[in-house]
Amino acid sequence: MSSGPATHGKGYGISDTKNYQDFTIKEFKLKTPEPSDVTLSIECCGVCGSDVHTITGGWGPLSDDWICPGHEIVGKVTHVGDAVTEFKVGQRVGVGAQVFACLKCDRCKNDNENYCPEQVDTYNSPYPDGVMAQGGYSTVIRANERFVFAIPDAIKSEDAAPMLCAGLTVFSPLVRNGTGPGKTVGIVGVGGLGHFAVQFAKALGAKVIVFSHSANKKDDSFKLGANEFVLTSDKEFEKPYFDKLDFILSAADAAKIPLKELLSMLKIGGKLVSVGLPDEPWSDMSPSLMNPNASCISSTHIGSKKEVNAMLKLAAEKGVKPILHDIIPMSKAAEAIESVKTNKVRYRYVLKQDLE
Amino acid sequence: MSSGPATHGKGYGISDTKNYQDFTIKEFKLKTPEPSDVTLSIECCGVCGSDVHTITGGWGPLSDDWICPGHEIVGKVTHVGDAVTEFKVGQRVGVGAQVFACLKCDRCKNDNENYCPEQVDTYNSPYPDGVMAQGGYSTVIRANERFVFAIPDAIKSEDAAPMLCAGLTVFSPLVRNGTGPGKTVGIVGVGGLGHFAVQFAKALGAKVIVFSHSANKKDDSFKLGANEFVLTSDKEFEKPYFDKLDFILSAADAAKIPLKELLSMLKIGGKLVSVGLPDEPWSDMSPSLMNPNASCISSTHIGSKKEVNAMLKLAAEKGVKPILHDIIPMSKAAEAIESVKTNKVRYRYVLKQDLE
């Protein structure tokens, strides 16, 4: 008979959005174990822009007195419930930005569990049993096996971790909007998400045009696989691309992006998906921006397990991986957070386990 | 040998957006006749919200010293160019909100002439030859035959006129977004455009749910064919419709519509098209409104000739027609304009010819 799963974890968290750099170590309770749950000890965790939005209060107040962020998690399975079929103790796995869904609704049954209305985020979100989900700047996490992903041997843990939110967040809308051979895709913003978007759009076979307001992203864009690089601070940058783009993915985390110009480059009915979710609303949004070409604006939320698996397979085959700014101990989380907040990160921090 | 086409028209127009009710009668020059042009003498013209936005300056300054509005035009052909194949002198025809496109680009060649970058609006827009296009509160109009439409005998002129902008503007996005049997479509706002949208969505076979902030639109909505009527001022009006709508067409001409609530009712990836084009931007627009269900926001511009013909055929078959507030002489244009501006119109004015 196997030993019971862990009941508690320990992690780095914050208590006050005004002092978002003051991480303290605390022990926290894990969700009640259920037959389909997998428990893993955490090896490393990526630092995501979402972590910054959440702990600075940009997306609203904290849901609890103390929040442990982190949702780009790789570790080793330490326990599986009796109903778990996919995973074994000792296996290397990952967890992304979602740890629960009802798994019964139409959305869950149709590979849209990432849009389940009962979803629980990996942190700052309460489970139905009342236990607060805590994230990956910690020792251990438990989740239903639907939200646990096998990591291919070809991908190192520190490269896999950032894919589980940043990678998936761009991979899902790229795939759902037909990115592939014969298509021209615009990627706006080359940061943590965007630098994956360029690689995945390329790996999927599309022609990739990067739009950035930073000339210093040019070399990296080409290294990542861009076919063209366009500086959005150039006057009339959009003109040569009128009616040329099938799809635009904006990873720009900004309240003001050149929406009118970007939309004008889309073919009739083409879509711009913003996976950037700025703290402030878009001030200049108007239906009249879209009616010259019936273009659409959308936003998406991470992706499904089916998409995670497809993404990891493609990444393993094509060598897609993050450019890591640094790999540092979890105790230095505040350093990474500040680098993301001030937009200095190129392009992802990964925190290595240093607790226990 | 036929006589030459008219060289000038006479109409009711305005010179100053601040005094948008001060219509004066002036003679104006018609575009240079070309072999594919059709000239018609105007019998009647609908009064559209666009006329109000334009002559009040809501959509920007006037393009000329004097503007004759009106783009829901029915009349009789008085002259056809040598290359015209579709029409004969004496035939009853209509002209909508567009009078020119290049007819050579990919958009024009693929039934998207309404998105041609060289398009000329029916009024307040210059032709390539420099002549200012003037609208239908006038005696005569000339347009390329692509922008002239045969009116089925079953439809009266005063019923056909408002379809050529208001009807088409809603028919095109309904059709392009798959409105038909088995689909549930939300129509937001029951005015000049919305009252056509309800009828066309029904005629196309969809289940139609009307969302309005005016309880006094309830009876009309059911008369027009709505299956359900929902008051958007009711708290949590959207809750019973979560994940139920395939498509939403918003005809609300307002800077603030309950976007978050409306979008929440869409199925995964569902679209809201706003054909309302308010003067002011939407102040509360944010990607986070769409990421709970990957919904999209779009806007469209009138429709193609192919769609006009399909719309008129369907209208003739199913008896779709406007509810006319009144039919008044063109000299009373200001009265109709004020009624539209103050949202008193139920649901369309048509102006009858009284010049010459």
TrEMBL record, chains A, B:
Keywords: Metal-binding, Oxidoreductase, Zinc
Cofactor annotation: Zn(2+)
CDD domains reported in the protein's UniProt record: CAD1 (cd05283)
Domain Enoyl reductase (ER): 18-351
Alphabetized Pfam families for the sequence: ADH_N, ADH_zinc_N
Residues in the signal sequence: none
Domain of life, source organism: Eukaryota
GO molecular function: oxidoreductase activity, acting on the CH-OH group of donors, NAD or NADP as acceptor; zinc ion binding
InterPro entries: ADH-like_C (IPR013149), ADH-like_N (IPR013154), ADH_Zn_CS (IPR002328), CAD-like (IPR047109), D-isomer_DH_CS1 (IPR029752), ER (IPR020843), GroES-like_sf (IPR011032), NAD(P)-bd_dom_sf (IPR036291)
UniProt family annotation: Belongs to the zinc-containing alcohol dehydrogenase family.
Protein name per UniProt: Zinc-type alcohol dehydrogenase
Record organism: Naematelia encephala
